[in-house]
Amino acid sequence: MAIAASTGPQHAAILGIGTYRPSRVIPNADVVDAIDSSDEWIQQRSGIRQRRWATPEETVQMMSVAAARTALERAGIDARQIDCVIVATVTHMLQTPAIATAIAHELGTDQAAAFDISAACAGFCHGLALASDIVRGGSAGYALVIGVERLSELTDIGDRGTAFIFADGAGAVVVGPSDEPGIGPVVWGSDGEQFDLIRQREDWRDVVVSEKPEMPHLIMQGNAVFRWASFAMAKTGQQALDRAGVSLDELDVFVPHQANMRITDAMARAMKLPERVKIARDIADQGNTSAASIPLALDRMIEEGDARSGDTALLIAFGAGLAYAAQVVTVP
Ligand code: UT7
Fold it and tell me: Is 28 an annotated catalytic residue?
């Protein structure tokens, strides 16, 4: 007896994108006192001028639903056509169930498959790779990928290495069938030898038995991550271009994870990106939003006219794990 194989369309693409930026704008001036820093130092070392932190009402679910509704509207797709919802996040505070199920329900999908993935700052590109394969494999007609974080909740405002970096927000894309390939082959991987470079300070069991329970904030050996990201990720980006069969001359837009403006510049230099390639610089006003940073940055470029529908964009995401993923996409 042979089991029937699932089959799908030959190609998939991003059909629509939407984002949600929290309402609270936090300038550097508001974070410097607690970490004995300065606006000048933060701008020089990270490129960040201000970030956005969520209010209590701006939950992971609320921000996700808002971003997803815009993405659906722009894609011209009804929520009931979505068969799979993938949420990339590390700041949904319940171990189980996945927040994706609540989001799928609130959006009004018809009981879409829904699950969360944990790949930190690389989460969006992991989700995009999955969605592309899920659509092309015939497991879903349309899939929704959401990158969402509320990192302010896991950030120690007194920690010099992280307090000025992390921020909140959400970005979503609808992935569906396409006549042409719109999402290139993913180049992804992990380096677990560097597991400890970015992590939650302790696990919840240690928090529970501690005499003075505190939120297990994120800690980061920033300089080691900085050096790794600046060099290793340029190679990953080049591999993603090679696998997609796209030359540097054909590339229009570069959207790296918004970790640090200096990392973005170092990667662009190492990859020898031509001057005319537009580079995402959303971090300046948004901070580092981990899984949300790439869709947030791409959406801003579209809004500001730096990325146009049909442009070819290289996405590179990297972070805790260390986990990374890159692919070439067509701008919706
Ligand atoms: O999203 C996930 C992936 N994350 C990343 O990719 C983050 C990567 N890392 C970074 O972005 C950077 O490492 C930081 C922005 C976090 C730090 O910049 P850095 O250039 O690596 O600084 P550093 O840690 O090497 O510190 C340089 C100096 C030190 O002083 P001395 O020893 O040179 O006198 C620090 O004590 O800056 C000092 N310093 C600060 N000064 C003012 C460290 N933190 C601060 C601070 N304000 N917040």
Answer: no
Q: In Å, how far are 154, 161, 207, 210 from 216, measured between CA atoms?
A: 7, 15, 7, 11
Q: How far is the C-alpha of 123 from the C-alpha of 115, rounded, in Å?
A: 13
57-102 per-position pLDDT tens digit: 999 999 999 999 999 999 999 999 999 999 999 999 999 999 999 9
- Tell me the CA–centroid distance for residue 332 and ligand 1, in Å: 36
Cα–chain center distance at 265:
19
Annotated active-site residue in 92, 126, 217, 257:
257
Q: Name the residue of 226, 265, 289, 322 to mutate for ligand 1: max ligand atoms within 8 A of Cβ.
A: 226
Calculate the alpha carbon distances from 299 to 30, 71, 304 in Å: 27, 10, 9
Candidates 84, 121, 125, 217; catalytic one = 121
Residue labelled with tokens 């991003």: 14
Q: Which CATH superfamily is domain 187-330 in?
A: Thiolase/Chalcone synthase (3.40.47.10)
Q: Is position 223 annotated as part of the catalytic site?
A: no
pLDDT category at 1 given cuts 50, 70, 90 is confident
Cβ pair 170, 66 in contact under 8 A: yes
- Whether 105 is catalytic is no
Three-class SS state of 39:
helix
CATH 3.40.47.10 residue ranges of the chain are: 11-178, 187-330
Residue partners of 180: CB distance under 8 A and separation at least 6: 11, 13, 330
Second-level CATH architecture of 11-178: 3-Layer(aba) Sandwich (3.40)
